[in-house]
Design brief:
Length: 444
């Protein structure tokens, strides 16, 4: 199955043509679109106009792509403070779709699309799916939530535009997910990595080995996931698992997508211009250096984003990819500055914990991080499920595994944390984005 799929995936698909633009042409296109976007935003969005004036930057100052560094940033708080419609650059009558994200604190953020914006979003999603090897004839199970979240509808229109068959099952109802995957002979899927793992687990309980089904490719995202998690998913499902990067503020899924070689998502640079900055100073970092991803939309009409700070930590990869795409890549995003935990003064990311846990044999890809404070000191407990074999084993084996994990975590994080091995299925499963961290420190 994989061998023929491999050939199909490597064959050039017409929707991918813009992925291969000669760099000089791409840069000219980016500059033209950037200047048009700035004009439009300046004329229509008060916050941007005032900020440009406060920075003493004029539109005429932006003559090359490198001049972009002179422009002010946009941050998530700007979307909250102008809630709901304050950043729109066109009349409400031109807007045909609204999405919103349920911020964990306070007001949600609202994003808007014109007909043209939806067409661009659909086209980048079709290009993402084509790079995952999805083709006309594929049966695509869309297990992302449909609704205000951009995941479901983003994939939906991309699959249809590509000419494949979409099953709009949405998230949840896991038994039905498994039944449909088998009965409808599903060949491609999208979900959050954690929810897909839950589907696989449920399938196994129902006596179905997903590796024996026609499923061969999947696009996963909407939460950070590690390379070890990818390997677990690929082995358990017998598929290629690709990273799909996006965020509602920019368009939704489809900002960047991995190709067959899985060497980090290619940014659809003809629509989204990427930069990497030092999150502390706000200055652009040298090529290849890690920092915060900043994106400027180049074609968005309803709600252009100028130098939007994504809070995602990554690096730009400029070396050519064997697939031949000229689009630059970002390193897979395992970390969001929002996810950073500060434990006894040390910065810790859940994805580092995930990678360390899953590198040890006997663990299952289900874990949770519990933070408490005892006598003013932060305590971290990592709960991880272990395989039934380990769990039913002698106490000594469990103690050994526990020590092994504590050492692995200490090596990765630089601090000693406690580990609890728990029975399979004892950590609550999510139907969307996984809840990895339970922070009880504020309650004490
Ligand atoms: Zn590539």
């Amino acid at each position: 199955m994989i061998a023929t799929a491999e050939k199909a995936a490597l064959r050039f698909h017409p929707v991918s043509a813009p992925d291969y633009l000669p760099v000089a042409n791409l840069q000219q296109l980016q500059l033209d679109r950037l200047q048009a976007t700035l004009r439009r935003t300046y004329d229509n969005v008060e916050l941007f106009r005032k900020r440009m004036q406060a920075h003493g930057v004029r539109l005429e100052d932006i003559r090359t792509l490198d001049d972009i560094v002179q422009l002010p940033f946009t941050v998530k708080a700007d979307l909250r403070e102008t809630y709901p419609y304050g950043l729109f650059a066109c009349p409400l009558s031109d807007i045909v779709r609204l999405h919103a994200s349920s911020g964990t604190t306070g007001k949600p953020i609202v994003v808007a699309y014109t007909q043209d914006d939806l067409a661009v979003w659909t086209s980048v999603m079709a290009r993402a799916l084509a790079s995952y090897g999805v083709r006309s004839g594929d049966i695509f199970q869309n297990a992302h939530g449909y609704g205000l979240f951009t995941g479901g509808l983003g994939f939906h229109y991309g699959v249809e535009a590509l000419g494949a068959t979409v099953i709009p099952i949405s998230g949840g109802n896991t038994d039905r997910q498994v039944m449909i995957m088998r009965d409808f002979k599903v060949t491609a899927i999208c979900a959050t990595p954690s929810y897909f793992l839950h589907v696989l687990e449920r399938a196994a309980e129902m006596g179905i080995d997903v590796r024996e089904l026609p499923l061969r490719t999947g696009g996963f995202g909407a939460e950070p996931w590690s390379e070890s998690m990818r390997r677990r998913i690929e082995a358990a499902a017998g598929i290629k698992a690709y990273d799909c990067y996006g965020l509602s503020e920019i368009t939704g899924p489809g900002v960047a997508a991995e190709c067959w070689f899985q060497r980090g998502p290619h940014v659809f640079e003809d629509h989204f211009y990427p930069e990497i900055i030092d999150p502390e100073t706000g200055r652009n970092v040298p090529e290849g250096t890690e920092g915060e991803l900043v994106i400027t939309t180049l074609s968005k009409q309803a709600m252009p984003m100028i130098r939007y700070r994504t809070r995602d930590i990554t690096a730009l990869i400029t070396e050519p990819c064997p697939c031949g795409r000229t689009l630059r890549r970002i390193r897979r995003i395992g970390r969001r500055s929002d996810d950073m935990l500060i434990i006894r003064g040390v910065n810790v990311f859940p994805s580092q914990i995930e990678a360390a846990l899953l590198a040890v044999e006997g663990t299952l890809p289900h874990y949770q991080i519990i933070l408490t404070r005892e006598k003013g000191l932060d305590q971290m407990e990592v709960q991880v499920e272990v395989t039934p074999e380990v769990f039913s084993d002698r106490i000594r084996a469990l103690v050994q595994l526990n020590n092994q994990l504590m050492n692995a975590l200490e090596q990765t994080l630089g601090i000693r944390v406690s580990v609890s091995l728990v029975e399979p299925r004892s950590i609550q499963r999510s139907e969307g984005k996984a809840r990895r961290v339970i922070d009880r420190r504020r309650l004490e």
